Each structure stands twice: as C-alpha cells, then as structure tokens.
Amino acid sequence: MDPSYRIVPASDAKSASVQETANSLGVHDTLRYGPRSLAAEVQTWEATQDNANLTIQRDVYGLHAPMRLMMERKIVSQGTSPFAGATRPSNLHLDILMGRDSIIEPADIFLGEY
Questions:
Q1: The pTM of the whole model exceeds 0.85
Q2: Could you tell me if residue 67 is left (phi over 0), alpha (psi between -120 and 50 degrees) or otherwise beta?
Q3: At what angle do helices 64-78 and 30-61 cross, to 10 degrees?
Q4: How far apart are CA 35 and CA 39, in angstroms?
C-alpha cells in the first residue's frame, strides 16, 4: 500500500499511433485495441480507489485499521466454506470487506468471471 490521496490513477505516458492500432483499412481497430486498454484502466482505477480509502483509514483511525482490513481480506480470500460442495462458489465476505456488497456485476449473476 503506497500512501496516496490520489483519486484518479496516474496516467502513463503512452505513445500510440494509428499505425500501431490500425486494421486493414487504416482505421483504429476499437474492437481489438479499445476494450483491453479500458479494462486495464478500470483495474488501475479500483486499485487507486482502494489505496486512497486505506490511506484515509490510516490517517483517521490509525495504522491498525488498514492492516486489520488487509488481514481480514487475506483470510477471507484464502478460506473455504463448509458448504463449498452444496452451493456455487461465492465470496460474499470478501465483497463486503472490499465495499462491493451493494454492486451487482455480471460475475454475480453468471458463474465465475464474465
């Protein structure tokens, strides 16, 4: 955890040209190059938001708060459920600790990652 109050991820200096991402017609291929960069930005966005929240918790509650939360996340993500064979895999506890308990994502509806 790098203590930072950054809300938006730092932008990497990328030098991309149309020639690198062009299709056979010389136009930017959005289907091939667009979603991957968006997915990477979303991952960076979530990590930056999580880092900012942990930094704020450290400043308000002390060093123990983010350490405890990270420890609880690690324990919950490694743990197994006694009902693992009877139900589909779900990690509701980790969603609650990450603050994603009020968000419905495609992975919640469909089995596994979308």
A1: no
A2: alpha
A3: 130
A4: 6
Q: Tens digit of pLDDT for each residue in 41-78?
A: 777 888 888 999 999 999 999 999 999 999 999 988 88
Run of H or E residues at 47: helix 30-61
Q: Which residues, including other chains, have CB under 8 Å from residue 9's CB and lie 6 or more apart?
A: 41, 44, 45, 47, 48
CA dihedral 7, 60, 57, 38 (to 10 degrees): 0
> 55-64: long-range contacts at Cβ-Cβ below 8 A with a sequence spacing of 24 or more?
55/1, 55/3, 55/4, 55/5, 56/5, 58/3
